[in-house]
Write a structure and sequence with these properties.
eight-stranded antiparallel beta sheet, 1 helix
Amino acid sequence: KKMIGKIIALCMTGALIGFSGQIMAGGGQNYPNGAEGFLAAAVPPPGFYFQDYLYYYNADTLNDDSGNNIEAFDDVSAVANVFRFLWVTDKQILGGNYGTQAFVPVLGTNLNFKVPVGPEATTSYDDTSVPYLIYSPVIIAWHLQEGKFHIVATLPDLVIPSCQDEGNLASVGNKYWTMEPVLGITHRLANVNSSL
């Protein structure tokens, strides 16, 4: 019970540090919340793992801050293929398994407008690139209550910029590094799973 208290205190400290960093950085985040599904905080046992996320998005309307349709906008489409490499060791830190992970996102975006817009004064912008890398140098995963309660913390996730085309509206890269600690909790009951 003392160990669970220490783990929760460590995770809350990480969450507060992450919150203060978001205030200073303008509220950006590393990856889309909700990308993980059930058992989001249940890190697998020691070993090397590969996971591939594939996302597609398309829209043909865009509204301004007042909710009015922006007439110049035609459509946008985006495809993201995100490669995730996860290594979990049998080494223990504060009673949890140590691991590390890296994400390599390959993003393709296409923006179309009805009139010429932007720095290139054109009706179409597209970009396919690896705009950044996400690296988690420290992952600590706890499996408690006979595998029914899981906690995972990363301290912190680093987003490393790799490329950005400033004249291209479809380019999604940034020129700045970000750090974000991540905390996940999953609790399984008989037929119910809850993850945070």
